[in-house]
Amino acid sequence: MDKYEAIEKFFDFEDEYDQGDRPYRYTKKRAATKPKPRPAEIVTDLTDFVDDASAWVPTYAASLDPKHHEREWLIESLAGFYRDNIITDVIRRVKGGKEANVYCCTANPAAGVELIAAKLYRPRILRTLKNDAIYKAGRILRGEDGKQIKGRRDKLAIQQKSTYGKYLDMVWWIGNEFGVQKALFEAGADVPRPLGHNGNTILMDYLGDEWVPAPTLSDISLDREEAAALFEIVMENIKLMLDNHLVHGDLSAFNILYWEGKISIIDFPQVVNARTNPNAQVLFQRDIKRICDYFSRYKVRSDPAQIARDLWIPYMGNI
Ligand SMILES: Nc1ncnc2c1ncn2[C@@H]1O[C@H](COP(=O)(O)OP(=O)(O)OP(=O)(O)O)[C@@H](O)[C@H]1O
Ligand SMILES: [Mg+2]
User: What is the distance in A from the centroid of ligand 2 to the CA of 186?
Assistant: First the structure.
């Protein structure tokens, strides 16, 4: 399968995946758009695509109906990491979302951790990324190799939303998310250690154990003392991000994991650059407000507007 066929196939995935998720309802509109059944040769192509990992069926995939598209998609997305000896198995789906699925994988002992989280973006990420334009403002277009896109053809492909353009867009979002998480981890922020990325997938340290994944702050209840301490830690992280010119842009109790008394901030595709994105200050204020609102249920008192000002003004003065 050449690269372009693989890309087309990736974007075909949504319709078929959804049909596997819920009963397929036949409508006239759907009848017109219903994808044709896959020709048998695709299977041969898939074998070529996954190369020497072609026989690999992870434990979780084996539990899926072979006709369900998730199985094929999962194997295709992760076979490269299996072949490179980073992961050895996929044991469960932690979360299936509209934009991404997160899976728990066992790691090769050389990775130094037992479990790895794999976040696999669904093509739909490009359709649903909230207010795409707000987050992309001020960005530099980058291609697959991470280099700035200068060519007229690539820029045009993105503007026209051709399949290749959509693919470049997705590569940009995922490369951006990985790069941000890496920079933050290296700066000492409380984020899961990022381990690698490829195509539609990001690998990182898994929080939780083999029985349960770490809950988000929104799923647990804290005592007041612990809540006050965690509030300070989240604020320190927000400041550290800003010192690195980054604003999370979608920070809330849903994007903070809690495990063994520690928090980890996750989910970075919509992070914006505080220096170049004209919406950065508004997003920054909103992030702080959501965190203050969450902690106020534990009687942690704060003034979000004041906190945002106290951090933003000196930051702007220093850059
Ligand atoms: N490193 C990790 N270790 C354990 N679980 C994780 C990890 N990263 C993500 N998860 C789980 O996957 C869920 C979704 O992750 P994330 O927020 O990055 O994706 P998302 O596409 O934004 O999903 P959502 O729309 O639900 O926020 C998290 O709420 C958490 O339950
Ligand atoms: Mg999230």
Answer: 21
